[in-house]
């Protein structure tokens, strides 16, 4: 056969493997290649955490209650673009975007509606929020306080990963320096006030979605992780404290074995990176991660095929030892998922967890000559990139020099060529394709919700104590010009119902825009 046998990262696959190194490692022990817990899913299944949010807080709240009723175990909030880049719904740049790719949140009022009927102390919530992470985290904390929750027990995650925004995703506001300050302020604040909060979700997912290979996804994510470790250490924070609550987020793409090996390599590499930087506490060395099945692998053609793709990707994530998982809806190449598609996505996780037996033993593929060697090879290939980035002075420098962006673009181009030439097969797209009408169940968000948000904000401004808001914003402005931790100032502003846009504008004034 003339077919080339390589993984998506170009690692050559041999016809047969013989015993490689790495076979003596144990789960729950350094370097955690085989998993961070001794018993893994026998002790506790991964968190089924479906990413959702659209339109108004009321609508999204309904979807959360629906998902919880269907057996989802954790919440994951999608915010609309204006919220992600620090504009209220009434800002002119928000036109056409309010409630589109996620829920619109202008103030604590919206947050109260978003979690109506949900006790924050009883659930963990992830919020995909980066440039405005401190504001949304402050709103979440303010709401938890209003509900009477013990902040020492409150748990969840904010994405808070600005480096991959510059490199791949795009929702940044401020320049890298002040952005890194906001992030490390959160590390410091949470380690004292909300110690169970996962303060960042260092994300390879979007790097992969932008077209990187598996090896690049791993390498760039870990390099970014190193940059956060070093930024926090140079602020004087203790790696054995803050690193316990760093978390990761990876993509799970089509190449089944490569993805499993990637997760195993990620744990081993992170354990070594943190150890070298002084971490001695095992919790600070363990790489904990969320996985989302690959959004860009979904096809608009023959959308039902996506259910099969998602199943295999989800199984790979579980065999790779994920802590938390989102499975995509089969219709997401066309629109936001309908309720029916969201349900099948969740059922896919439940079938893997409760029917397949995949959870009955720890790291079931360990000792496979192929998996062990592929784990080693991915590690080696990723290390080459990390060394290169280190030589450039770390991730911030590499991103400023467009290094990651160019590497990702080159891989995306190669992938597209391979699809077009037929070198790579996509079922229903470049092989076994057939004409198919687009279904009529496509989900759309109504533009009228912007008007609703605008009216709500006007009411808010009439109801709140505006003198107190102005004072809180002024105090934040002064603090931002100095070196104090900004979280307490943001929390006060949020509790007085300052809006997201008002707070982000104060920081724009002081930090400038990127
Ligand atoms: C750490 C993770 C990865 C997972 O946290 P979870 O709370 O769900 O799970 P966990 O930490 O494994 O488990 C919760 C608790 O149970 C414990 N536990 C787990 N397994 C155990 C076992 N076998 N034995 C004993 N204890 C165990 C853990 O130690 C932990 O307790 P302790 O805490 O006490 O130790 C977190 O960061 C997370 O949930 N991330 C989700 C991120 C996400 O959803 N992102 C969506 C992005 S969506 C996106 O970006 C889409 C695209 C776009 O918008 O552009």
From TrEMBL:
Signal peptide: none annotated. The keyword Ribonucleoprotein does not apply. One of its GO terms (molecular function) is cobalamin binding. It comes from the Bacteria. This is Methylmalonyl-CoA mutase. Residues 450-477 form a coiled coil. It comes from Mucilaginibacter terrenus. Keywords: Coiled coil, Isomerase. Residues 7-513 form the Methylmalonyl-CoA mutase alpha/beta chain catalytic domain.
């Amino acid at each position: 056969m003339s077919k080339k046998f390589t993984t998506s990262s170009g690692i050559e696959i041999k016809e047969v493997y013989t015993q490689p190194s790495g076979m003596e490692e144990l789960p729950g022990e350094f370097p955690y290649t085989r998993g961070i817990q001794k018993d893994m899913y026998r002790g506790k299944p991964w968190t089924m955490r479906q990413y959702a949010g659209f339109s108004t807080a009321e609508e999204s709240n309904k979807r959360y209650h629906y998902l919880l009723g269907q057996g989802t175990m954790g919440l994951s909030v999608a915010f609309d673009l204006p919220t992600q880049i620090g504009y209220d719904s009434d800002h002119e740049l928000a036109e056409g975007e309010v409630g589109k790719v996620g829920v619109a949140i202008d103030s604590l009022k919206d947050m109260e509606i978003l979690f109506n009927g949900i006790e924050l102390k009883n659930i963990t919530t992830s919020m995909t929020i980066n440039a405005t992470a401190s504001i949304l985290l402050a709103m979440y904390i303010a709401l938890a306080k209003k509900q009477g929750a013990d902040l020492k027990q409150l748990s969840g995650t904010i994405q808070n990963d600005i480096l991959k925004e510059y490199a791949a995703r795009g929702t940044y506001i401020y320049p890298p320096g002040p952005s890194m300050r906001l992030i490390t302020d959160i590390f410091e604040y949470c380690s004292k006030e909300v110690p169970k909060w996962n303060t960042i979700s260092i994300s390879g997912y979007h790097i992969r979605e932008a077209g990187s290979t598996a090896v690049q996804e791993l390498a760039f994510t870990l390099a970014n992780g190193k940059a956060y470790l070093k930024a926090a250490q140079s602020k004087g924070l203790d790696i054995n404290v803050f690193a316990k609550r760093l978390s990761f987020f990876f993509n799970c793409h089509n190449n089944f074995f490569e993805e499993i090996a990637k997760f195993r390599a990620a744990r081993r590499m992170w354990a070594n990176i943190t150890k070298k930087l002084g971490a001695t506490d095992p919790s600070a060395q363990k790489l904990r991660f969320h996985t989302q099945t690959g959004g860009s692998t979904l096809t608009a053609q023959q959308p039902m095929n996506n259910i099969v793709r998602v199943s295999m990707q989800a199984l790979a994530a579980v065999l790779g030892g994920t802590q938390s998982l989102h499975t995509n809806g089969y219709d997401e190449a066309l629109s936001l998922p309908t309720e029916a598609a969201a349900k099948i996505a969740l059922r896919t996780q439940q079938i893997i967890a409760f029917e397949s037996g995949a959870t009955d033993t720890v790291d079931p593929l360990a000792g496979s000559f192929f998996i062990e060697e592929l784990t080693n090879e991915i590690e080696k290939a990723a290390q080459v990139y990390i060394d290169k980035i280190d030589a450039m002075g770390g991730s911030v420098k590499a991103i400023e020099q467009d290094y990651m962006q160019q590497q990702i673009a080159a891989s995306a181009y190669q992938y597209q060529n391979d699809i077009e030439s037929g070198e790579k097969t996509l079922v229903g797209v470049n092989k076994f394709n057939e004409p198919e009408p687009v279904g009529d169940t496509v989900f759309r968000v109504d533009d009228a919700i912007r008007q609703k948000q605008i009216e709500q904000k006007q009411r808010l401004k009439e109801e709140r104590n505006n003198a107190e808001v102005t004072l809180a914003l002024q105090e934040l402005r002064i603090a931002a010009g100095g070196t104090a931790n900004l979280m307490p100032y943001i929390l006060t502003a949020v509790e007085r119902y300052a809006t997201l846009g008002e707070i982000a504008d104060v920081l724009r004034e002081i930090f400038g825009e990127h």
